[in-house]
Specification:
alpha/beta, 17 helices, 17 strands
Amino acid sequence: MSVPALQRRAWVVLDEGNAMPVAATLMEAGWQVPQVLQGVQACAALLRDAVELPDVVVCGLHFEDGDGLQLTRLLGALAHPPAVYFATLQQRAVIKAAISLAAACRVRVAGYCESPDDAGVIVRDLASYSSPPPVKARTPLPQLSRQEASDLLRQGRLEGWVQPKMRLATSEVVGFECLMRARDEAGGLVTPDRLVPVLCANGLIEEATLEMARQTVDMVAACLLEGMAVSGSINVSMQSLSDRAFCHELARTTERAQLDPSWLTVEITESDAMADLSTVIENTTRIRMLGFNLAIDDFGTGYSSLYQLSQIPFSELKIERMFVADAHIDPRKRAIVQACAQLAVALDLKVVAEGVETVEELEVVRAAGCTEVQGYLVARPQPAAQALQWLRGLDLMRVPL
């Protein structure tokens, strides 16, 4: 439900010719407009003086003393920033980039108008806008200590949660990714944001990764014994791959379970793959020589060199969720997904779209040429035992979408 207009406040930060007409039209519509400004510096001064903030700042992108991008960053630095409404003659690509910047700075966008002199359009756009209800601040959980992280490993409280991957052509589950979790002494779930940084900082990540590998191998072996042909994948850092002892222990994990290593995929992030080329080639080639598959994860987020990508023996490319989300309504995202998929196909790689949550996103990645998908539409991450029961309940391993 919209907040009554009389309760809404706007600042207008536009060039001299448009600021007053827009402010006057907003006030006629019932808005309070306590500040009408013609530049960035005056607005910055008000923010420094901690005056009462508005619900929306109607601003342009170009001023003699700065630009709307600076202003967006200033707003983003506030604990509870107002929304922005961009009114500018700039190209649509520039406006979309400004909207992306606002999102990156945690600033809501109330809309945009490509005719800053059309006050009526601006007011109509803002007629249905209302500020979000205040969000209660969540008390962050304390960081784990090295001793606590070590205890999780020693006491066997690391827990692999799995998220299935589905083949697009048949809707069959063909694999899953193992995601690291843990249980504290009270049985509460310890999420990766609290767990992984501590493990990495204290030299425990390789031991934890090998535990995830063992749990993944056990899950794959259990599925194969029941006639369910699913592979598994684990996330491994490039630092771990540079350790030959780690790689050979990974191989022994599959040997002990009498599992062909080709049933296991090692995932490295794109940013990891863009380290020193000779080191990356050596480490990734070694893991392929041992029989494992190799995936590049979060593709599109690391600005990778296509030359480097062509030199590394990947078998799979995973397109990052940020490009898949809402791709059905964003032609630029759709183009990126399609380009990534085409590149992967040209390099003879499997293409997995991550984070697919809606049928519309599914159709986009299908049309783009992706071969597999992973995301909430298929299934959420879940404990291995629960995932095994879920698989058993499927008809011919097909996901009913």
